[in-house]
Amino acid sequence: MYLFARDLGYICFDIKSAVKNGPLNDAQLMVLKVVKDQYDEKDPEDLRKLLIDFNDRKMQEHLDKFIDEKGYTDAGFEKMSHGHGRQAC
Q1: Which residues pair with 13 in a beta bridge?
Q2: How many domains does the chain have?
Q3: Are strands 10-13 and 2-5 parallel, antiparallel or unpaired?
Q4: pLDDT at res. 29
Q5: How far is CA 31 from CA 19, 75, 82, in A?
Q6: Can you tell which superkingdom this protein's organism belongs to (predicted)?
Q7: pLDDT tens-digit map of 7-58
Q8: What angle (nearest 5°) sits at the alpha carbon of residue 26, between those of residues 62 and 34?
Q9: pLDDT value at position 68?
Q10: Euclidean distance between CA atoms 4 and 6, whole angstroms
Q11: Staple 24 to which of 28, 30, 50, 72, CB 3.0 to 4.6 Å?
Q12: pTM to 2 decimals?
């Protein structure tokens, strides 16, 4: 598990968490290889932004797929936003 210590200006690797959570996956290993050498003090912040953008894109893809599978529409979301979602017993 990588910990981004933005305020401290560096990235550190928490080996105890990595061992506890099991082996690193391919994506985590690739990030480790990319950032093993810190090039300048701005790098951790740039990397953090890239990973946030990547995660945002992946979550949006997942959400879009879910919405398509369920057949939800903009009109349906609009209707849901005006309802309270509770049903009488």
Answers
A1: 2
A2: 1
A3: antiparallel
A4: 85
A5: 17, 41, 43
A6: Bacteria
A7: 444 445 555 565 566 788 888 888 888 777 767 878 888 888 988 999 999 9
A8: 105
A9: 93
A10: 6
A11: 28
A12: 0.55
Residue 88, domain member (yes or no): no
Token pair of 40 as six digits: 């300048």
At residue 73, what is the residue type? Answer: T
Whole domain around residue 52: which residue ranges? Answer: 2-82
Is 20 exposed, middle or buried (CB count within 10 Å of its CB: 0-12, 13-18, 19+)? exposed
Residue that has been written with the tokens 């990547």 in this structure: 54
In a domain, 87, yes or no: no
Nearest alpha-carbon partner for 1 in 42, 9, 71, 12: 12
What gap in Å lies between CA 4 and CA 7, rounded to an integer? 9
Beta bridge partners of 5: 10
